[in-house]
Amino acid sequence: MSDLSARLGLPYLMPAQAQKHVTHNEALARLDLLVQLVVQGFEASTPPETPQEGQIWALGPAPTGAWAGQAGALAAWVDGVWQFIPPQTGWRAVQVGSEGAELRLFTTAGWAVPQAALPDSLPGLGINTSHDSTNRLAVAAEATLLSHAGAGHQLKLNKAAATDTASLLFQTGWGGRAEMGTAGTDDFAIKVSADGSAWADALVIDRASGRAALPNGATIAGTEAYRRGNILGTVSQSGGVPTGAVIDAGANANGHYVRFADGTMITATRFTITESSSFDARLTANATLPAAFHSIASMYPQLSLPIHSSSALSGVDRTDIESWGCAQPGGTGSFSTTQIGCSVFCKPGTVSAGASIADMYLTVTGRWF
């Protein structure tokens, strides 16, 4: 039978041994060093100048001075001398310092930081907070870092079916305010909500074509962007800056008009001009415009004859027509933002009573603001 215990090397009391207290005290002293083992440092190589009673160092592979030749041993300062104890595999030691405590485990390779096996199939995990049956992983922190392991990094959200949801939900006070992902479909979308109940799609990208849609329009520098859906409509302006559609086209009994966002307007009027009893060899008419211009100064009228239709002339021959034109601002004929006087001049004595020319065309270019 050995005189020492198998694990800690504690001395046994022998039969008929004298001074049994010496052996007993030696065993107690060894237990005092090794139970709840605390060291001043790991991989130590140089003895301290003034060690304190009971302090222990875990030595490295090449200690010097009083520790020379004791590589890997535990060096304990007891009763003014160094005692060296060889550690055994499985022993644990804690180093306590200003930055906290460090636990190490003695292995065949030396003192190593123990690596806990990561558990699988946990029902849930809460970090600084509690998880529940829906939020199986819950984290309460200022930030959450997911980094690479040497190359790239992917965060994968997988759903069972296209009608399910895989998304990132942004909340305020636990109420949804923005969401991005594939919610209820495989098309990618970004949507927002003011209250967490009613949602508006800001961007939808078709999963097959990659075509992006902005269902609620878009603004650039606070102004609505033009698109196929709003390029045609009612034009408007505020302080000379367009606020409506790009092109505004319309028609009524007086003809057709088109307004542009820059303020340009073009009108087209078809009317019949008749013989004037007040003027020999002259046909006249006041053409009412389909839309009002902003000012007379901006208007540029152009009168055209129906040159491709002989049937449009009645009581007058085309060869007898000498000229045609419109009244001028400030002249004798009518000229306003809604009506322009027009005339056709013929050779004297060639216009029959009641003569007329149908399908006269008056085009006016100007501004609507």
Question: SSE layout and pairings?
Answer:
Elements: H1 20-34, E1 38-39, E2 56-58, E3 74-78, E4 81-85, E5 92-97, E6 100-107, E7 110-112, E8 125-127, E9 137-139, E10 165-172, E11 175-183, E12 188-193, E13 199-205, E14 212-213, E15 219-220, E16 223-224, E17 237-238, E18 241-242, E19 247-252, E20 255-260, E21 264-275, E22 282-288, E23 300-304, E24 313-314, E25 321-326, E26 339-346, E27 356-367
Parallel strand pairs: 1-5, 8-9
Antiparallel strand pairs: 2-3, 3-4, 5-6, 6-7, 10-11, 11-12, 12-13, 13-14, 15-16, 17-18, 19-20, 20-21, 21-22, 21-27, 22-26, 23-27, 24-27, 25-26
Fold and architecture overview:
- There is one protein chain.
- This protein has 369 residues and is mainly beta.
- Among the domains are: 36-112, no CATH class; 161-216, no CATH class; 247-367, Immunoglobulin-like, CATH 2.60.40.
- Helix content is 4%, strand content 38%.
- It has 1 helix and 27 strands.
- The protein has one helix at 20-34, and strands at residues 38-39, 56-58, 74-78, 81-85, 92-97, 100-107, 110-112, 125-127, 137-139, 165-172, 175-183, 188-193, 199-205, 212-213, 219-220, 223-224, 237-238, 241-242, 247-252, 255-260, 264-275, 282-288, 300-304, 313-314, 321-326, 339-346, 356-367.
- A hairpin with a 3-residue loop joins strand 20 and strand 21 (264-275).
